[in-house]
Model the fold of this input.
Amino acid sequence: MSMTPLRPEAIPHEDSALAAELVLGLLSPADEAQTRARVATDAAFAADVASWEDQLLPMLDGADAQPPAHLWERVRAGMGAETGQNNDGKLRFWRGFSMASTAVALLLGIAMLNQPAPIAVTPTAPLIAALGSEAGAAAMMASYDPRDGMLMTMPVKMDMGPMYPELWIIPVGGTATSLGMIDPAKPTRHSLSPEHRRLMAMGATLAITPEPAGGAPGGKATGPVVASGTITTI
Amino acid sequence: MTQASPQSDDPAAFLARRKADDRARLAKILESTGQGDRSAFEQLYAKTSAKLFGICLRIFPEAQEAEDALQDAYITIWNRAATFDASRASPITWLAIVTRNRAIDRLRARGKAQMAPIEAAEHIADETPLADAQMLAREDSAALTGCIAALETRDAAFIRSAFLGGATYADLAARDGVPLGTVKSRIRRALMRLRECLSG
Done:
């Protein structure tokens, strides 16, 4: 098959199973967030994910079917609405953000190679996270000041359908804890509890899932992770 | 597949070349879409909507829901096209995965993770020949179908429930009333067998 990139031999079996689990959507929101963060920082792993996507693709294929003619009009109407908000400036900002998050990911990749253990950060350095995903519907920047425990969320794009965005913190090897609902439309400041401040200081992943109004019932995420990113020092 | 000289009359080489040309053309249209080119997006829609609608119909057999999912997918594609990287992904794979992921998001947002009946697993790919063979080599599909059929029926059904029904490990464990760890190790073993079969 000339189209499928050769699977890198360096990928251990266990990692390749994880790549397949990510593509198939088997993982819990917390595991998915961590695995997506890894796609952004580990090129060999990302290539294995792409290879699984290519190989599993035939499973998605049904018989081709012509959609009704009016559907293009609906798509175009949807584009129009988007273009209203996405004027050139905003579009440029979004593309810049994409590149910025790649740059952050590259930096992180280096940091992770040098420090396989959880990143211990100094208690006073400001922290930042770029949340996004390859095919997801949401992107957000977050910054955190350990001196006053204030977390600032800055949404770039929040396409939640009928649901509401809930922010989660996932410590390395730990389970997701809710940081609460976030405003999908404008930058907002949140004061974190002492427990959440401790988690932030340990180095972790932030993730967003779509949840019903008022938040996930029982404090357990029900929606898929639509954006995630690792917390790092600036 | 071996590299053929441009003059070769070998039909396999001819098909491979045509496939590579189609891929390059589609990648270009997708890249132009990413630069905000509306006519490129319209072309993209004309070239790919039948295929992507086929995917939506696999996930939502009901036509109205499939149409909503397709609309959703194309608006996501329009907004995300700038993140497509031709050096990292095939354009049709990228489009199909975006469509699948958006459709599964919709399914899950309604609390509707679908479980494939065990017996459905035997027919992973439709027997219907692909209308547009240029989009996807038929032999890839046959290889996957064969490798999935070689798995235990239950494992094949699990894989299908995840990819097409949005079921997570937790959903699968709950349905079967077995511990999460049991389902995980079982599917991981199946995935490794699948990987070996596909690369063989």
